[in-house]
Amino acid sequence: DGGITQSPKYLFRKEGQNVTLSCEQNLNHDAMYWYRQDPGQGLRLIYYSQIVNDFQKGDIAEGYSVSREKKESFPLTVTSAQKNPTAFYLCASRGPGATLHGYTFGSGTRLTVV
Amino acid sequence: KQEVTQIPAALSVPEGENLVLNCSFTDSAIYNLQWFRQDPGKGLTSLLLIQSSQREQTSGRLNASLDKSSGRSTLYIAASQPGDSATYLCAVKGDQTGANNLFFGTGTRLTVIP
User: Fold this and answer.
1) Measured between CB atoms, does A61 come within 8 Å of chain B?
2) Mean per-residue pLDDT for A17-41?
3) Is pLDDT above 60 for A19?
4) What residues in B contact A6, CB-CB < 8 Å?
C-alpha cells in the first residue's frame, strides 16, 4: 500500500545534540512538508519542498534543516539551535495539481529533550 | 493571514447521537477544505476533501458541507460510535500562489460515550 512512513516513532534528544527524523513516501508525490504540533495549537509549518533539490522555509524554520535529494525522502534535522524541540512532528505529502488533491500524513515522531 | 477556528474545542455525546462539528475561516479565497481525524499520539487521517466549487462531500456516516461565502464548514457524523472518539481537524488551502498556504484549526476533541 502507498503511504508515508515516519521513523522513529519516539526519539529522545540530549541537550546540544542534533537529531534527524526520517520521512519516506511511496506515493510518487512531488510536494512534501514538515509540521510541528504542540498541545492546544494548530499545526505549524517548518519546511516544505515542492520538487527534488528544492525546499523553502515555513513559519517556524529556525533551528531546523532539511534536504530533498530524492523524491521519496524528506528528512528533518532538529539542530541544537532549536531551543524548545519537544513536540510531535508530522510529515505530509501532496500529489500533483494545486487544488485537486488533499494532503497525506505520516504517523508522526514524538521528540523529547532529556 | 487566514485564521481557522473550530468550536467547540471538546464535545462529549452518548453513543448513537448525530453530531455536528464546526469550522470557520476568515478568508473566503480558498481552493479547498480538508477534514482530518487524529487519534491520540497518531498522525492525521484524511476524512473528506471539499473543493471550493463544491457544497458537500459524503463518505459513509460522514458528511461535510462548505459555505465559502460565509467562511464555514461543518462535519456531520451520523449515529456516532465509540470508535469515532478522536480529535477532528479542519484545514483550509488558500488560493494564493505558493505552497505555504495550508491553515489548520486547533481541532475538536470528540468523545462518544458507550
Assistant:
1) no
2) 93
3) yes
4) 43
